[in-house]
Design a protein that fits this description.
alpha/beta, Isopropylmalate Dehydrogenase, binds magnesium ion
């Protein structure tokens, strides 16, 4: 097939862009620029459909996840999100909190499988608060269950009491275990399951189901159980021992922020939230950072690494994902870093430009 024919038949991917709040639109802009350059270089046509979520959506429509956003996602291959939230909406009623937009999109599209890769890079070790010898060889994948547990259980409150119910079903645990098992198989074949089985009934169900699924379907994958309080400590003392860390929604939220400090900055960590049909929501794990919004100094690396995850997991373009990651790592090696890491560091625009330049051959 001539390359002209190949170009003509290249599938156009549909991606919903959700800039959101705070620094969200700035890092989203960086992603758009990189994707445009990647299309020129690698024939990667993406139709970006910008939609509202979070506080921006509350301001424009009164709700953090408008129906138009849901409809757009229904016909898309993936969604790319900047960040949601900010002090401006702190006193809004619960149904108008920006974060609710995120929780709703996770639930609406069954994005039960949240992947947060924690990989240390030699050029960034000095930025971690941990001693360098604790950071050597860290390459772990946090697999966080994202649509169950205490986040989505029954909630109520009166003047003197409040309750959040943590509930998990066998099938919710089975499907996330299968996702973790499949991933572990492509990696070092080890799962560490984190829970609080010495206290919580849901954790005891998790232990039973995880070990059953792995025994029956992934006999080649090894399983270690760790209580969440110990896991919080072991992440600081022996992070390099972990391969896949599998855990429930709330523990995964907390441990992934902690683990991000191994890499140097929250501004460096991407994430993917996937369902069973390969649709995914891709977003940096940092928040909207309202204190630095609008100053052109947000760190776009987490967003650009999220783009790489999108190329790999939802768009089936692993080679292009590798190329983007290589360019990012090259920038790190050359010290092209934003002010969250180095005083007087590069602007968001400069980092974006540098990544684009390094994608180009020669
Ligand atoms: C995350 C965030 C969200 C979560 C918030 C913004 C609702 O902290 O993605 O880790 O708790 O899941
Ligand atoms: Mg979090």
């Amino acid at each position: 097939m001539s390359s002209a024919t190949a170009n003509n038949t290249t599938r156009v991917f549909r991606v919903v862009g959700l800039p959101g709040d705070g620094v969200g639109p700035e890092v989203y802009q960086s992603a758009c620029q990189v994707l445009a350059v990647m299309d020129e270089l690698f024939n990667l046509p993406i139709e970006l459909d910008g939609q509202l979520i979070g506080g921006a959506a509350v301001d424009a429509t009164g709700t953090p996840l408008p129906q138009a956003t849901i409809d757009a996602c229904k016909s898309a291959d993936a969604a790319l999100l900047g960040a949601v939230g900010g002090p401006k909406w702190d006193n809004h009623p619960a149904e108008q909190r920006p974060e609710l937009g995120l929780l709703k999109i996770r639930a609406e599209f069954n994005l039960f499988c949240n992947l947060r890769p924690i990989v240390t890079h030699p050029a960034l070790q000095a930025f971690s608060p941990l001693r360098p010898e604790r950071l050597i060889g860290v390459d772990l994948m946090m697999v966080r269950e994202l649509t169950g547990g205490i986040y989505f259980g029954k909630k109520w409150r009166d003047a003197n009491q409040a309750e959040d119910v943590c509930r998990y079903t066998r099938s919710e645990i089975e499907r996330i275990t299968r996702a973790a098992g499949a991933l572990a198989r492509q990696r070092k074949g080890r799962i560490t399951m984190v829970d609080k089985a010495n206290v919580l009934e849901t954790s005891r169900l998790w232990r039973e189901v995880v070990s059953q699924v792995l025994e029956d379907e992934f006999p080649d994958v090894s399983l270690e159980n760790l209580l969440v309080d110990a896991a919080a400590m072991h992440l600081l003392t022996r992070a390099a021992d972990f391969d896949v860390m599998l855990t429930e929604n709330l523990f995964g939220d907390i441990l992934s922020d902690e683990a991000s400090m191994l890499c140097g900055s929250m501004g460096l960590l991407p994430s993917a939230s996937l369902n069973e049909d390969r649709f995914g929501l891709y977003e940096p794990i940092h928040g909207s950072a309202p204190d630095i919004a609008g100053q052109g100094k947000a760190n776009p690396y987490a967003m650009l690494l999220s783009v790489a995850m999108m190329l790999r997991h939802s768009l089936d373009r692993a080679d292009e994902a590798d190329a983007l990651e290589r360019s990012i790592h090259q920038c790190w090696d050359e010290g092209i870093l934003t002010p969250d890491l180095v005083p007087g560091g590069c602007s968001t625009a400069r980092v974006t430009e540098a990544v684009c330049e390094r994608l180009k051959p020669g």
